[in-house]
Amino acid sequence: MEHGTVTAEEIRDEVKRLIAEVTERTPEEIGDTASFTEELGVDSLMAMEVMVAVDKKWKINIPEEEFGQIRNVNDTVSVVQKHLGATA
Amino acid sequence: MRRVAITGLGLVTPIGAGRATFWKNVTAGTNGIAPVQSFDTSEFPVHLGAEVRGFDPAPFIQSRPAESMGRGSQLAIAAARLAVQDSGVDLAAYNRRRVGVLMGTTSGEPGMVERYNDIRKAEGLDAVPGEMMPKYPCHVIPANVAIEFDLRGPCLMIPTACAAGNYAIGYAFDLIRSGRADLMLAGGADPFSRITYMGFARLGAIAPEKCQPFDRNRKGMVPGEGAAILVLEPLDDAQARGATIYAEVLGYGVSCDSHHMTAAHPQGDGAIRAMAMALDQSGRTIEDVGYVSAHGTGTPTNDRVEALALRTLFGDRAPRVPMSSIKSMIGHTMGAASAIEAVACSMALHTGVIPPTINFQEPDPDSDLDYVPNTAREAHPQVVLNNAYAFGGNNSSLCLARPV
User: Fold this and answer.
1) Where are the domains of chain A?
2) Which domains, and CATH codes, for chain B?
3) Does B63 reach chain A within 8 Å, measured CB to CB?
4) Domain spanning A3-87: which CATH class is it, in words?
5) pTM (predicted TM-score)
6) Residue of B138, B155, B211, B295 marked active site
7) What span, in angstroms and rounded, lies between the C-alpha atoms of B83 and B76?
8) CB atoms inside a 10 Å sphere around CB A23
9) Complex-level ipTM
10) Measured between beta carbons, which residues in chain B are less than 8 angstroms from residue A55?
11) Would an 8 Å CB–CB cutoff place A56 in contact with chain B?
């Protein structure tokens, strides 16, 4: 994949799809700023599922500590973009 | 002999998945024990378990459909993937013939035995699929990990029950130290199962209300499940690639009580010898040990003998060596237990904090030592012992140190 071609919206859509899958919702129900843990009920196992899926999708390696700081979709998009930039 | 570093920690436990979450929860004294959900326990006199809830293996398993293997293998692959990611190693850069996987377990894939037995009972022998054979034996767990990550070196299961994780890490240490392997994934896995639960319930070993190791009023253990994998590699390789080195493996000791299938030796003979052997191989003494991760199941006998063993080997120093049991929080995860505890030991060395024994209310006058009651402690241990004991009289102690 050419990292330069990945847009924030593509990342956002994929992240919402993944969060929707682990929380058994539809992507439309996942708000950009909805708290993963408090509003969407994401536990550590779901978070790790999303982390490995994100890492695989974009061939990046987000450290656990950094992934643990992520609170919502917007944060996830920024972190993925940062790591894509670092490996581009 | 090469020195051996632990550079990746991956795990799935009843109190969270991934090194960071597990460590946050285990140092916060989080309880992962609750009434069993995965099957009906109404016919048992006890109902507690430590399950990994809501586990969806699919995202972790990329080589084949997750349902093609048992839950033990699924948990193991998830732990292995988290460990490899945590280590930052690029597997593509290795000669795969020199990368292996070594695991421990108590029960292998009991869910598969149960499934095929249920089919046979309900529908008769002809309904049992031919795929049964490669699904349930315990050696399929490391084999499934090896296939997932294309690891072509040593692939072994050491089924020494509840001490098995330490055996696996110890043997992986030998393989790297002696130059037979360049990278090893080592740990343990055990899934929750009806058969394991029934076994411990029939022994009368399961605690009715809570798991309270070393407490005067302790009433038993709580069966649990999980998996942990540690990435082991030569220390100089780890340094060369700028890896985070959580701990160095210094040595290990294993022994057999040769006394009784389920009861520990009354004086803790094998437990003492395993600790002494681990320290001897490590070139360390009891004076160096800053933390002991106890087997600490919460059964009256195990905890009494374990305290006696520490007192016998450590003498006057015993009450000054903190020794805690994280089984108070995650239950007894069987073959995964000592691997999960090895992760906790590595993190204790890495962060300086030691996890507590929760549910500790009343000291036992027979075995009154420092069990790090209820609250984690900043202790900055430099050398730790990870103790694990098992049916069969199997004893194991692993000695880890803060890298210097």
Assistant:
1) 3-87
2) 4-401 (3.40.47.10)
3) no
4) mainly alpha
5) 0.94
6) B295
7) 10
8) 18
9) 0.78
10) 85
11) yes
